[in-house]
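Suppose you are handed only these lines of text.
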Amino acid sequence: MGTAAAEVFGEAFHSDPEGLSRGPGRVNLIGEHTDYNLGFVLPFAIDREVRVAFAARADRKIRLVTALAGQVFTTDLDSLLGVHGWPGYPLGVVWALGELGVDLKTVSGFDLGIDSDLPIGAGLSSSAALESAAALALSSLWGLRLDRMELARAGQRAENVVVGAPTGVMDQVASLFGQPDAAIFLDCRSLELEPVPLGLADAELAVLVIDTRVRHDHATGGYRQRRAECEQGVAALGVGSLRDLEPDDLDRAASQLDEVVFRRVRHVVTENQRVLAAVRLLRTEGAGVIGELLDASHVSMRDDFEISTAELDLAVKAARNAGALGARMTGGGFGGSAIALVSCGDVASVSTAVTAAFAAAGYRAPEVSVATPSAGASLLGRGAGPGGEVQGP
Ligand code: GLA
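From them, the structure of the protein bound to alpha-D-galactopyranose can be written out as follows.
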């Protein structure tokens, strides 16, 4: 693992990296657009990731290269802002670490070689994966003593301020705190989190990811608008955040809000309840019984929050018709991926049915794969212990 990143590094910089880090993408099991409303989410890190090969430099230069872009991007520690495209993510993390108190006047420049098997814009958080792998690389290079939640916040700040996407902290937390066969139950207000075992293999269940290959960009458009609509709800109802509302408050909200804002608020309030219910069910009865919650979450995103697309709706419907226990779009919406909870024995037939439904509708063929809940970001190689792996800070 990490070899391709090391190769990209070697080809571009004609030297060996000092270390390697990895940051996984994520799938959100349930809890959508609840993170920036300070509610609950339940994502897991997946077995597809960004890998970063890194080395310190003697000067203040920064050189970045990816397997995809090929060309080396060069800047320095005094020119981190105003950069467009993928370099904005690692540079944003550097800037955010500076905001967290790292003295960027005294640290060394660095070279990064980046490789990834995560599709970009597929709703699997390739950007958070890159941010967390870069954050661990910089922690290692600069000997930082920041904990993982601080690194997650740095990734979010990078995304919000430098890239300009007004996202929450869910993706970075999933990427940094993931655990094998578990989802991460995060309270986005207190930032307390707890792994919730999924027991997928024992229950002979799998989570299918259906990438519709309709691409989205959260820095513009619908995501930003939904966030603004939630803020309108907060202001009109005079609450601190939508997290403060319970289902019992919805009648009052309906009388105080315009119809569209009310439906946005109702999605967030009911989605928080669905996350709590999913966590309860996972702990008592196991993953086999959360299907209805996944379905209800999708309906709420489709009808109340209006962030689904025809392709996502079809993916969900075709998967359900072919025997999936539950299905929903995952991530920010307006494209990207859906997930379906299926019995292991049905993986092939559900995949085939979804692909056939897309062909019949005249849509581009989706990419269907199984996502395995996996370990969060880590350092590889340098100073590795017997397992060949060093955990980050
Ligand atoms: C994107 C954002 C997250 C979250 C989801 C929706 O993935 O990056 O912070 O808001 O959308 O749940």
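What can we learn from it? The longest strand covers residues 40-56. Residues 383-393 have pLDDT under 50 and may be disordered.
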